[in-house]
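Page 42, continued from yesterday. The earlier attempt failed because a stray header line got pasted into the input along with the sequence. Redoing it now with the clean sequence only.
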Amino acid sequence: MRVLHSNLTRSWWPARCDRPISLQPGEFVRVVDIRNITLIVEPILKP
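This time it went through. Structure tokens are written below.
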């Protein structure tokens, strides 16, 4: 998975989700941690 972090430099970062779910392309995620250069993300759930 790669995440475009557009608030900083519009560059691609490696990312992963530790939850047992599937994320779809274009889905919005929240960065909850950073391990080395990998962003740890979780989905932003719609109400």
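Notes: The chain has no helices and four strands.
Reminder to self: strip header lines before submitting.
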